[in-house]
Fold this sequence. Notes:
Blueprint: E1 2-11, H1 15-26, E2 32-36, E3 73-75, H2 90-93, H3 96-106, E4 111-113, E5 130-132, E6 136-138, H4 140-157, E7 161-164, E8 167-174, E9 177-185, E10 188-199, H5 206-215, E11 225-234, H6 235-242, E12 249-253, E13 259-266, E14 270-276, E15 281-287, E16 296-305, H7 313-326, E17 333-336, H8 337-340, E18 360-361, H9 364-367, H10 370-386, E19 396-403, E20 411-412, E21 417-418, E22 424-426, H11 437-460
Amino acid sequence: xxxxxxxxxxxxxxxxxxxxxxxxxxxxxxxxxxxxxxxxxxxxxxxxxxxxxxxxxxxxxxxxxxxxxxxxxxxxxxxxxxxxxxxxxxxxxxxxxxxxxxxxxxxxxxxxxxxxxxxxxxxxxxxxxxxxxxxxxxxxxxxxxxxxxxxxxxxxxxxxxxxxxxxxxxxxxxxxxxxxxxxxxxxxxxxxxxxxxxxxxxxxxxxxxxxxxxxxxxxxxxxxxxxxxxxxxxxxxxxxxxxxxxxxxxxxxxxxxxxxxxxxxxxxxxxxxxxxxxxxxxxxxxxxxxxxxxxxxxxxxxxxxxxxxxxxxxxxxxxxxxxxxxxxxxxxxxxxxxxxxxxxxxxxxxxxxxxxxxxxxxxxxxxxxxxxxxxxxxxxxxxxxxxxxxxxxxxxxxxxxxxxxxxxxxxxxxxxxxxxxxxxxxxxxxxxxxxxxxxxxxxxxxxxxxxxxxxxxxxxx
Length: 461
């Protein structure tokens, strides 16, 4: 079996892993290896056509992370992507400037959006829809792939070793300390020994990390998770809100007490599939490009599932998503609004043709749990009261949209160090607390700096 040795081993080359490496390099720790299960950016291509059968789907794993197949929104707020939990101190949040600077120097074009005092398109509807905005940097689906590729190359030029196609099979843990990983690549088995390991495995690595930590005796915790649908309509129907703030947030509480919100708005965009392969879940997501515009816009409508609703929100969201796609043989479901809300859909058709061919027709009310279906119906009705064209009969709905979060790993929020396993830091979406590119990147920066401080202190002794 081949073996490698390094000071710091980072598992995953998404935003959390890349920014952890950046912090280490800036602090003088240069013996850094990033082991990535997926492909380099050049190999991350989703084939066109109605099929979605890739056994090694490159969409959610590989250089740049799952976020490289997103809309490219960088939310410059420390309470976005955290379920509004105060995960970061004011001093830590200042490092969002480091993230923004790295993005700006590695993409060709960016668009900045400042918060707006109010979303006037919701005026008169505040009792049902509560608007929100925040500092936002948008690079588009094209720009976010450019960022992942160029930032990774920048780090490699500065000395990081990126090993793509390495499938970590086991964390090497002994006497309460992590010592590296056992894995495989195209050449066969290998071990990577390290003084410290940063688990930045993202969404696709979630089941593996949960199994590894549970086997090591770590008690993981549940917490809120999100599941939703995605609404696609004409660009003109959503323009009154998008023109005021591109990624507007409109919060709603359903009659059943479920909190629902808009998420990931894509003006003049597209809807795509994403395959959460280890969990055997296909869902949908939204994209938009800075230099390619469609005549449609879309947004996710997410319901937050809490422990007041079900004892284990993580399991509930995963099981619900699988059940939705089981009805179509493993594909996301799409349905015209007129079929989902026949008593509410109104007006003339807008000429909406579904932009995602990798979905199948279905009955959302038959596959969604009734409390969720009712919550989404309540949200759409409220949004349509403010923007009546949204209720056109040919507006299209898709499901599932999932933001399931990992089970929460007990960590020290000041360092993102495991409370149970010495030498292990768990960052980004893998830790179970974050669900945005900027929050994941910020956790990686914090962990990288903490590791560098520890290495420096050890050397000085």
